[in-house]
Amino acid sequence: MTDFYVFLGALVGLAVGLWAWRRWHPDSFWYGVAFPARVALVYLTWSHVASGCGLTRTRQRWRYTLDALPVVGPAARNAATVVQYKRQLRRVGVEKAPRLGLPRPTRLGWRVRLRLSGGQAPADYEKAAERIAHAWRVHSVRVVDVTPGHVTLWATMRDPLTVVEVTPETEELLKVRPGKLENGQDWIIDFRVVPHWLNAGATQSGKSNLANAIIKALAPQPVALVGFDLKGGVEFTPYAPRLSALATTRTQCRALLDDLVAELEDRMEQCRSHGARNVWRLPEELRPVPIVVLIDEVAELFLMADKSEKDEVARTGTALLRVAQLGRAFAVHLVVCGQRIGSDLGPGVTALRAQLSGRVCHRVNDPETANMTLGDMDPAALDAARAIPAETPGVCIVAGQDGSWHRARSVYVSEEAAETAARDHAHLTPDWNDLTGSSLTTGPGCSAAA
Ligand SMILES: Nc1ncnc2c1ncn2[C@@H]1O[C@H](COP(=O)(O)OP(=O)(O)OP(=O)(O)O)[C@@H](O)[C@H]1O
């Protein structure tokens, strides 16, 4: 009886010790206890899991079988002696799960490499990812690092984007770190690599927060910021001290776009006369100031109240498209925000969207918006965009021009923080008239230079 109590006491002590370890030092508990236990479970259940997810293949293997053979001759008339059993070595079909590599721990889960069975493609694993996640009792399973014949599955125990910490800015020209990627790395928007960005999502999904993060990060840099805000200027007017120009009416938008196109033509001419393919190849002292154009609610630029506005809208669309097409070589970059940017807004919109190679899709209300933003990319990205919950604003799917995509979340940047950054760096705001030689009138809503 005493032994029983000692044993029970030891068990309770062990349980309390493990609980305390997990409570006060979760990282070492994960690597020391939880991860090895998970690995054992993954290995022990893998053949069942793979079979349930349709990932096994039938292979012919030599096996001893216990066969029932019909007995021939007179004994066959007696039902009790119809068969006789015989062990036999022969080739039979056996279900084989793909070979699992050694799981490697990560802070929030593990990565494991798999060898694809003959006839399988990474897409088979993307389709099965949700079922594998349920079988492994984890938050999500993603297919990452695809190499010929192999895929890596990345399992995460909880959503790494629940809390996103501020990352210090690099202050490299035109590089912004607005948040974190799901894999724990910094989310980097590098306008020199991906020149134009589409920032889409439903209302309250975090679009303005991302715009705030971009403004806050670019404010200390030697760049000109320009705003188009057809919501009466309510979004961008607070940042006016750091904006070289701000258009809040359709007429101002047209004038500002004309200025941008003229500026691009000047830059083109300058590059041509120096034999440079783009502004980055010009001598440093001649290199023009990069311009980042932020457009809030792009649909407003394309909406027509009546037919009389048709020509105006068409001219606006064409000018914007020219800015997008020429901007990449001549350091004029676009960040286009909107709830919808679909072909229903007019033919120019689809062409514009094709120029915006950087895509950010926040939570969407309707599948078409996700389709419009990410539809020409991996279908798994679309599924991930549709699954973004409303309670995590700022979570988005980010896709660059190489076709790869990530779940990401922007760091929370309040309007006040972006406003303070705009005020503190107002002295860096290039004057629009000096920059472009334009005659745009300075005043509320247009050319709001410091
Ligand atoms: N990354 C984030 N982390 C935490 N909270 C966020 C984040 N992004 C946005 N939010 C919060 O979500 C709410 C909506 O964000 P935001 O205004 O950016 O959405 P929106 O898509 O611009 O909406 P709308 O189209 O209505 O202007 C805000 O209250 C903001 O504080």
TrEMBL record:
Compositional bias per record (Polar residues), positions renumbered to this chain: 435-444
Residue numbers binding ATP: 201-208
InterPro entries: FtsK/SpoIIIE/SftA (IPR050206), FtsK_dom (IPR002543), P-loop_NTPase (IPR027417)
All residue ranges annotated as the FtsK domain in the record: 184-371
UniProt entry tagged with the keyword Nucleotide-binding: yes
GO MF terms, alphabetically ordered: ATP binding; DNA binding
One Pfam family here: FtsK_SpoIIIE
Residue stretches spanning the membrane: 6-21, 28-46
Domain of life: Bacteria
Region (Disordered) location: 423-450
Gene3D superfamilies: P-loop containing nucleotide triphosphate hydrolases
Keywords: ATP-binding, Membrane, Nucleotide-binding, Transmembrane, Transmembrane helix
PROSITE patterns in alphabetical order: FTSK
Alphabetical list of PANTHER family matching this protein: DNA TRANSLOCASE FTSK, SPORULATION PROTEIN RELATED
Record protein name field: S-DNA-T family DNA segregation ATPase FtsK/SpoIIIE
